[in-house]
Design brief:
208 residues, mainly alpha, Helicase, Ruva Protein, domain 3, 3 domains, two-stranded parallel sheet
Length: 208
């Protein structure tokens, strides 16, 4: 994150230094093209390359790491050396840490007392209830970048989505993405139960 925060300063420094270099080259060319009787050393640049570089280096050093929260997905796949690096970063202070993993991750982490003692709490994400999922779909929620018809999903299509996903949010994300593809490929303008089932058939999600 710190590198991202410093990127605008570096880009600006590059532009200013390139402009100074072009100015210096133009001045030198102009002076050197004069007759020998009129030639003299061109005046120095103001500000100089060194002054400009020092200025932007000071600005860059003044930028502190803006990271306040680190989220690590699939944390259950981390080896002990990686976990120790995460622990060291957390111990440095000033940064919150969230580990996301498959069920049972807390049991694996419990084998490392030095790490596990720093865990404040464990939260288990459960599947969405049918009521919560229906409310979400009625509000026409879709994953980022997915476009569905303005009319949204009808009651029958919503019921089909609930049956297929069983409240699994990740599966809901994949299914809606695939529904968009089915509509586009077949030039359809409505999400029907048939479209939902066609999208399901193209995903590896087991039996409904």
């Amino acid at each position: 994150m710190e590198e991202i925060a410093k990127r605008p300063i570096r880009d600006q420094a590059r532009e200013v230094l390139d402009a100074l270099r072009a100015q210096d080259d133009a001045a030198r060319t102009g002076y050197f093209d004069r007759p020998s009787s009129q030639w003299k050393y061109p005046p120095p640049l103001s500000p100089t390359f060194l002054d400009t570089l020092t200025l932007y280096n000071d600005r860059e050093r003044a930028i502190t790491d803006p990271t306040t929260l680190i989220l690590i997905d699939e944390a259950d796949r981390l080896r002990i050396n990686s976990l120790e690096q995460v622990r060291d970063r957390f111990d440095a202070g000033g940064v919150g840490l969230i580990l996301i993993g498959m069920p049972g991750i807390e049991k694996r982490l419990a084998r490392y007392p030095q790490f596990y003692s720093r865990i404040g709490f464990v939260h288990e994400f459960r599947v969405l209830s049918a009521t919560a999922l229906r409310e979400l779909l009625e509000k026409r929620w879709v994953p980022a970048g997915v476009l569905l018809p303005d009319a949204g999903l009808g009651a029958e299509a919503i019921a089909a989505v609930i049956r297929v996903t069983g409240g699994n949010f990740r599966l809901l994300n994949r299914l809606l993405t695939q529904i968009e593809r089915i509509l586009e490929i077949n030039d359809l303008g409505e999400v029907t139960p048939a479209v939902v089932h066609a999208a399901r058939e193209s995903l590896v999600i087991g039996q409904a």
